[in-house]
Amino acid sequence: MTIYWLLFGYAAIMALAYPVDTGRHPAGMGRSFALIAFVLFYVLIGALRHETGGDWETYQGMYSDMQSDTLSYALTATDPMFGALNWISAQFGLGIYLVNGVCCLILGTGTVLAATRMREPWLAILIAVPYLLIVVGMGYVRQGAAIGLMLMALAQLDRSRPLVTIIYLILATGFHSSAALISPLFAWSLVSKNKLLAVVLMIVGSLAFSIVLAPRLDTFEAGYLDAEYDSGGAAARILMSVVPSVLVLARWR
């Protein structure tokens, strides 16, 4: 658990060192280096962990299943982007560790890119550490990668780059088909910027839902709605939120 507290502490210290981004001054080299170092630190933790995380056995089983088979099988055995990543890792003999590292890299990068669009980037990153980065990113790596790509899409949408936004959303659906559900929200945001691309996104989202997601709804019900989960680290993550919450209540003005 110490390593998770170090990740949280790093973000907390940076939140104090770089408290507010007013937008009047470009990000300095020091802050940029700190952001890159944070992502690398997170990727190392995620890539080198062993037998930890809510879906470790599930993902290890997926990797073993695709390890000795063809790329075409890997693309259809699970979500295509995640299957391809497992197959590539198997070809280099890097096991599930490369898969976990790449997924953490995507989520960490997406979190940082989205955070830098906010007034207090490091505060946003700090808030993301206990659950999004630790629980989701290191326990449900497919979903984590999809969320990371959706955050990248959100960051590009804010910069009026609709085509890049759509590409990120398609990649997100490739990692976890449930990402198709978010397409209507992005399409609604794109209407005022580019009506044609908004229509394209709605069509792509509808096709992804019909072809990829709809046939797997029974699997989602059994795997998520009917499943019972237990988290041994819940107390520590709650404590990460309780301490700052108490400080806010004590110093609310």
Give a description of the structure.
It is a single chain. This protein has 253 residues and is mainly α. It contains 13 helices and no strands. Helix 9 packs parallel to helix 11 and helix 10 (183-190) packs antiparallel against helix 11. It is globular, with a radius of gyration of 19 Å. The two termini are 33 Å apart.
User: What is the helix/strand order?
Assistant: HHHHHHHHHHHHH
Estimated radius of gyration: 19 Å
- Strand percent estimate: under 5%
Largest sheet: none
Query: Structural class, from secondary structure content?
Result: mainly alpha
Helix fraction, binned, reads over 70%
Features:
253 residues, mainly alpha, 0% strand
Describe what is shown at a glance.
With 253 residues, the chain is mostly helical. The protein has helices spanning 2-17, 29-48, 56-67, 71-77, 80-91, 95-115, 121-139, 141-158, 162-175, 183-190, 195-213, 217-225, 234-250.
Helices and strands in order:
Elements: H1 2-17, H2 29-48, H3 56-67, H4 71-77, H5 80-91, H6 95-115, H7 121-139, H8 141-158, H9 162-175, H10 183-190, H11 195-213, H12 217-225, H13 234-250
Helix pairs in contact: 1-2, 1-7, 2-6, 3-5, 4-5, 5-6, 5-9, 6-7, 6-8, 7-8, 8-9, 9-11, 10-11
